[in-house]
Design a protein that fits this description.
This protein has 17 helices and 13 strands. The chain has 409 residues and is α/β, with parallel strands linked by helices. The chain folds into two domains: 226 residues, Glycogen Phosphorylase B (Rossmann fold); 174 residues, Rossmann fold (3-Layer(aba) Sandwich). The strands form two sheets. It has a seven-stranded parallel β-sheet, with helices on both faces. It has a six-stranded parallel β-sheet with strand order 10-9-8-11-12-13, with helices on both faces. Helix 3 packs across helix 5 and helix 5 crosses helix 6. It is elongated, with a radius of gyration of 22 Å.
Length: 409
């Protein structure tokens, strides 16, 4: 018997959400039928052909405007008035401490009514959301309206920064289970619910498909090229990276640094590059496709990511799977994957001096030393982040939730 599972995402597909696509496709390989539902994303510019395919398979809650939402709410009111008002009261309660005011939560309620209709039409026995934000509130409200049990994956750092505003405790208490992508993530979730709910907090890692790295075994180049991949935003620390690069350049160390990704801080980063006269050493590519991203990693001797706040960045896994050591910070779940001096270098977050020293260290290493670190990185990430293994863990939780809902046990 095939299990039918709904997936609910705020925006899908999205270049930074490739891990969700990998998870969905891995579940489908394991005989799950997956319904994709997203609030938005139908008009997004898509670089990857796989994401274009996902776009075609996704139902979009906001695509039809307000009338389908209102119509769905009226149908729920007529057919199930008691759950309707119970869920509406829950939406009111969720707005009490939230950053967003009551009208937003009433919109989430309307979105839940339409989502409920789609889940029932599909025959979903469970629905899963990614991120503990409004996407999880929508599936929680859909469950309160009479929909299937729900779960959600927490990545951080957003959920860790605003747990009360997001009503994270309420979302966990009502969920069938909650996925944390690292042990650190699970520890943070444990802070917001009573001990009785801790057993429902499960660690399941994000994963990589074998196709991403299987055919690639290119030793690190002798060049002094480093790559940083991530959205150009405050939490990723690119401004700190430019400051550190200036210190390295001032010592006469030769290097080339490529920043891959788009974002709101591009202008500020370009200004800092100009201030330190680094335009011949530091380059920005903007957003790129998955294939181009892989090429940029392979062309570099190492990946550097000086993040201030994280969950566990997929790009670290991707670089390690391509046999490249990584330079990154002692933040959140990162030290669970990156072992300092073995498969990468860890340095104190926020320290320009520590980052500059790490860059000098990796730039001074011989190709053979880089190869040994790269092989250790490859072994480590394959042990912990195979998408088919991690999806199987998630799939077992889906089956148990669906069976419990069916039997009432």
């Amino acid at each position: 018997m095939h299990s039918k599972i709904g997936y609910f995402i705020n925006q899908y597909p999205k270049i930074s959400h490739a891990f969700i696509r990998r998870e969905i496709l891995a579940l489908e390989r394991q005989d799950f039928h997956i319904q994709r539902i997203a609030l938005r994303g139908w008009d997004a510019d898509i670089l990857d052909s796989e994401d274009q395919e996902e776009q075609n398979h996704t139902q979009y809650v906001l695509r039809g405007g307000p009338l389908p939402l209102i119509g769905a709410a009226l149908q729920v009111l007529i057919s199930a008035p008691k759950p309707f008002f119970a869920a509406l009261a829950l939406a009111f309660r969720m707005s009490k401490q939230a950053e967003r005011s009551l009208p937003y939560h009433l919109v989430y309620f309307l979105e839940a009514c339409l989502t409920l209709q789609w889940l029932k039409a599909f025959g979903a026995t469970h629905v899963h959301a990614h991120f503990g934000t409004n996407s999880t509130e929508v599936v929680m409200l859909a469950h309160a309206l009479g929909g299937p049990p729900y779960s959600f994956t927490v990545h951080g750092p957003l959920e860790f920064d605003r747990p009360l505003y997001l009503g994270l405790g309420e979302k966990i208490r009502r969920a069938a289970f909650v996925v944390a992508i690292t042990s650190y993530c699970r520890s943070q979730l444990s802070r917001w619910v009573g001990h009785v709910h801790w057993p429902k907090l499960k660690v399941i890692h994000c994963g990589l498909e074998a196709a991403f790295h299987d055919a690639v075994n290119i030793p690190p180049p002798e060049s002094s090229r480093l790559v940083c991949i991530g959205r150009l935003c405050e939490q990723k620390g690119q401004l700190l990276l430019i400051e550190a690069a200036a210190k390295v350049a001032a010592k006469g160390v030769k290097f080339e640094l490529v920043l891959v990704g788009g974002g709101e801080m591009r202008g500020e980063i370009e200004a800092l590059i100009a201030k330190y006269s680094l335009k011949d050493q530091v380059f920005l590519t903007g957003s790129v496709s998955t294939e181009k991203l892989r090429e940029e990693i392979i062309r570099a001797r190492a990946l550097v990511l000086p993040s201030f706040a994280e969950g566990l960045p997929m790009v670290l896994m991707e670089a390690m799977a391509l046999r490249r050591p990584v330079l990154t910070t002692y933040v959140a779940g990162i030290p669970e994957l990156v072992l300092n001096g073995e498969n990468g270098l860890l340095f104190a977050a926020g320290s320009i001096e520590a980052l500059a020293l790490a860059m000098e260290d990796i730039l001074s290493r011989s190709p053979d030393q880089l190869r040994i670190m790269g092989e250790a990185a490859y072994t480590r990430v394959l042990e912990r982040h195979s998408i088919d293994i991690e999806a199987a863990k998630l799939g077992e939780l889906f089956r148990k939730s669906s069976e419990s809902a069916r039997t009432g046990i």
